[in-house]
Amino acid sequence: MIFPLCHTNEINDPGSKSFEIKYGRKEISLFVVHKDGNFNAYINSCPHTGVNLDWQQDQFLDMDNMFIQCSTHDALFEIDTGNCVAGPCVGDHLQAVKLVIENGQISAQLTRI
């Protein structure tokens, strides 16, 4: 299923934005990161504890905008792969969400969660 999220110009570069999607009976929390012209999306859940990653509304990046940072244990994840490179979940990764971008519209393509 395709779920429209926002227009590409609604997320700063670098920047991030969170979204809540009703998927069947579930509420799915995800976020999109815009960095160097690329967009990546992940389920908003730390693989270490399952907590949401954002430390403020739409704030998922570290101070240098180089990594996604977990608000709870400061784990760092690569923006383009979701791989954890520092913190208690090193070697684990975020669950990626496939994005479809057409005419500037960003949509999430969910198959199963």
CATH topology: Rieske Iron-sulfur Protein
Q: How many strand units?
A: 9
Kindly report how far apart the N and C termini lie: 12 Å
CATH class: Mainly Beta
Tally of DSSP helical segments = 0
- Compute the number of structural domains: 1
- Quaternary organisation: single chain
Helix share bin:
under 10%
Write a structural description.
The model has no long low-confidence stretch (mean pLDDT about 95). The chain has no helices and 9 strands. The protein is mainly beta. It is globular and about 35 Å long. The relative contact order is 0.25. A hairpin with a 2-residue loop joins strand 3 and strand 4 (about 40-45). Strands 1-9-8-4-3-2 form a 6-stranded antiparallel sheet, with no helix packed on it. A 3-stranded antiparallel sheet has the order 5-6-7, with no helix packed on it. It has a single domain (about 1-110), classed as Rieske Iron-sulfur Protein, CATH 2.102.10.
Lay out the secondary structure.
Layout: E1 2-7, E2 15-23, E3 26-35, E4 38-43, E5 67-69, E6 76-78, E7 84-86, E8 96-102, E9 105-109
Antiparallel strand pairs: 1-9, 2-3, 3-4, 4-8, 5-6, 6-7, 8-9
In short:
This protein has 113 residues and is mainly beta. The chain has strands at residues 2-7, 15-23, 26-35, 38-43, 67-69, 76-78, 84-86, 96-102, 105-109.
Keywords:
46% strand; globular; 3-stranded antiparallel beta sheet; mainly beta; 113 residues; 0% helix; 6-stranded antiparallel beta sheet; Rieske Iron-sulfur Protein
